[in-house]
Amino acid sequence: YGDGRAGIAPHQHDFSSATFSFGAPRVFLLDERPLLLCDGDVLVFGSQRHSVPKMPGLRDERISLSLFWHPTWRSDAGYTEEQLERWALQKQDELLWAAQRAEAVEQLYNFGIPEGAAVVALAQASEDVNAAAEALLRGGLGSMASGAHSQGREQQQQQQQREKQQEPNDLPVAAPEEQLARQTRGRWRHKR
After folding, report:
1. What is the C-alpha to C-alpha distance for residues 42 and 29, in angstroms, rounded to an integer?
2. Could you tell me if 54 and 97 lie in one domain?
3. Which residues, other chains included, contact 1 with Cβ-Cβ below 8 Å and sequence gap of 6+?
4. Helix ranges, the chain (H)
5. Is 102 a member of any domain?
6. Is the pLDDT of residue 57 over 80?
7. In what residue span(s) does the UBA domain sit (predicted)?
8. Count of domains in the chain?
């Protein structure tokens, strides 16, 4: 389209389309619903009626690249029922994994861990959210990044031994109940 004076009259195809838009933004009517396609947008649609109306005030160029295919590709491909079932099961497994991964990332994020660090830690901890959290809280993706899971366990055991060897005088002292009651102001305060 050289400018807004060019357009495409309403029409319809018996196949699916993917339209890639480059250049000036233009209105695209899909079943009479206006959609603004901007530079780099992709619109995938079926056999709906569509058009590009004229926009005389527009002076910039636009290129529209459309790819077409018949929606009956699966029947033409000759896949067996066994293959289709196997792919459906694989897709279910992938969706389940994605849901579990998203939940684990959210759990770590709720502890104040950045999303990127949570994703890396989960991958390095073989999707074990507890191991990922421990590694992150120890401040060390380093031990996991090198693949030395046992080194992380050794550090944890050493920390536990240090805690056991701590003298009783070094242990924190419990605060009196009255002091605790005064400190519980805020949204987690117990109502009496």
Report:
1. 14
2. no
3. 7, 23, 24, 26, 52, 61, 62, 63, 64
4. 73-77, 81-110, 115-124, 129-137, 141-145, 149-165, 177-183
5. yes
6. yes
7. 91-139
8. 2
Q: What is the pTM of this model?
A: 0.37
CA distance 91 to 103: 18
**Whole-angstrom distance, CA of residue 93 vs CA of residue 87:** 10
Give pLDDT tens digits for 126-164.
Answer: 999 999 999 988 875 544 333 334 444 555 566 667 666
Domain range holding 29? 8-69
Torsion of CA 165, 168, 169, 173, to 10 degrees: 120
Both 13 and 53 in one domain: the answer is yes
Neighbours of 38 (CB within 10 A): 12
Judge whether 62 and 24 are in contact, CB under 8 Å.
yes
The strand pairing partners of 11, in sequence order, are: 50
